[in-house]
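Running this now, will post back.
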Amino acid sequence: MNISQQRLKEIAQIPDEKIDTSDIPELGDDFWKDAKLIIPESKKLIHLCIEKTNK
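Update: finished.
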């Protein structure tokens, strides 16, 4: 799906109460019964320099 940045800004401006969610089913307890909290590993910042050679 390809959405322009302008359209994304327009969508972000729509108040929550104006969004029709009637076709989205509620998630019951069965959906969450096997859920597990997964905390991602922290990322490490690295710097890499690559020398370009002209051959």
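The chain has two helices and no strands. More later if anyone needs it.
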